[in-house]
C-alpha cells in the first residue's frame, strides 16, 4: 500500500534530520558525555514535540499517521526550512489510491501567449517531472536546441544529469543539479507511485552516481528563483537571475525566465544571442509541436 511506503519514507526523513541536529541547536543542555548516536535522541525530540517517546518511535518506524499539530511541532523542533517542511507534510499524506497514469501535458494557452512575447528573454515552461513543455528561441540558443531533441529527452533533470554539454554549460552544476533532485523528491512525495516519475528516477539513478547519492539523502534545497552562472560557447560567461511564475490554472506548470541587469556583460551577451536568433524568426516552441 502506498500509505505504508509514505510513512516509511517519512520515518527515514525524521531519523536523518534528527541525526543532523545537536542538543545545543534546539536549546538543550549538553552533558559532555559521549552519545551513542549522532544528533538528537528520540526521547529528546519527543520531549520537545510534547509526545511520548513511544509515540515518536512509532512515527520513525512508519507505524502510524502523523496529526497536523504534531507535524507543525516537528517542523519547528527539527528546524526545517520551507522546502523541508513542504516535504514533511507531503510525506505524511495518506496516499491510499492506486496511482494512475496521467495524460501527457501541453503548455497552458495563457503561458503560451506569454512565451510568444518573450523574444529577448530566455524562458521555459516546466511541467510535471521537470518536463520541458515550451521554450523561447533565446532559451534554445542559450541552453540547447530543444527542437532537435527527441520528445522523451526534453526533461530538465535528464539534461542536467546525462547531457555532457549541459553539464559543461552550468558553472554551478552541483547546486543546480541538487535543486532538480529536490523538486523531483517533492513531486514523488506529492504523487507516490507515479510510474513516469519512477522511471525517470530509476534512469537517472543508473546513469549518475551523484543523483543516486542525493536521491538517497534528505537534504532539501529546492528553489524557484536564484542566480545561474553559465559558460556559453559563443558569448562566454553569463550571470543570470532567474525567477518562476506558477500557472494558476495548472500549478504543475511553471514559467521560468532568466534576465540580467541592463548594461552588464551578461545583458549584452543575451542581446547578442537574441539578435542571432532573430534571423531565424522562429516563435516559441512547444514540446508537442
Automatic annotation (TrEMBL):
One of its GO terms (molecular function) is DNA binding. PROSITE patterns: HTH_CROC1. It holds the Pfam family HTH_31. InterPro entries: Cro/C1-type_HTH (IPR001387), Lambda_DNA-bd_dom_sf (IPR010982), MLTR_LBD (IPR041413). It comes from the Bacteria. SMART domains: HTH_XRE. Residues 39-85 form the HTH cro/C1-type domain. PANTHER family: BLL4672 PROTEIN, BLL4672 PROTEIN-RELATED. This is XRE family transcriptional regulator. It comes from Streptomyces griseorubiginosus.
Amino acid at each position: 500500500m502506498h500509505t505504508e511506503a509514505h510513512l516509511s519514507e517519512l520515518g527515514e526523513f525524521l531519523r536523518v534530520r534528527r541525526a543532523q541536529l545537536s542538543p545545543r541547536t534546539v536549546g538543550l543542555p549538553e552533558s559532555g558525555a559521549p552519545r551513542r548516536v549522532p544528533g538528537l535522541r528520540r526521547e529528546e525530540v519527543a520531549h520537545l514535540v510534547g509526545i511520548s517517546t513511544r509515540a515518536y518511535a512509532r512515527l520513525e518506524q512508519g507505524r502510524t499517521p502523523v496529526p497536523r499539530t504534531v507535524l507543525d511541532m516537528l517542523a519547528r523542533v527539527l528546524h526545517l526550512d520551507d522546502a523541508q517542511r513542504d516535504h514533511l507534510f507531503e510525506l505524511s499524506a495518506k496516499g491510499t489510491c492506486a496511482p494512475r497514469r496521467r495524460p501527457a501535458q501541453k503548455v497552458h494557452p495563457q503561458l503560451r501567449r506569454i512565451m510568444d512575447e518573450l523574444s529577448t528573454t530566455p524562458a521555459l515552461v516546466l511541467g510535471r517531472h521537470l518536463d520541458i513543455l515550451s521554450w523561447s528561441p533565446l532559451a534554445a540558443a542559450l541552453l540547447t536546441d530543444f527542437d532537435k531533441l527527441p520528445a522523451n529527452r526534453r526533461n530538465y533533470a535528464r539534461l542536467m544529469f546525462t547531457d555532457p554539454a549541459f553539464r559543461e554549460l552550468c558553472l554551478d552544476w552541483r547546486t543546480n543539479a541538487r535543486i532538480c533532485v529536490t523538486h523531483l523528491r517533492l513531486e514523488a512525495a506529492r504523487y507516490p507511485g507515479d510510474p513516469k516519475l519512477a522511471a525517470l528516477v530509476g534512469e537517472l539513478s543508473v546513469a549518475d552516481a551523484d543523483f543516486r547519492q542525493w536521491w538517497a539523502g534528505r537534504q532539501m534545497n529546492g528553489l524557484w528563483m536564484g542566480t545561474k552562472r553559465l559558460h556559453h560557447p559563443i558569448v562566454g560567461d553569463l550571470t543570470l537571475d532567474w525567477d518562476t511564475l506558477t500557472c494558476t490554472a495548472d500549478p504543475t506548470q511553471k514559467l521560468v525566465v532568466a534576465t540580467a541587469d541592463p548594461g552588464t556583460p551578461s545583458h549584452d551577451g543575451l542581446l547578442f544571442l537574441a539578435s542571432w536568433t532573430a534571423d531565424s524568426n522562429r516563435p516559441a516552441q512547444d514540446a508537442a509541436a
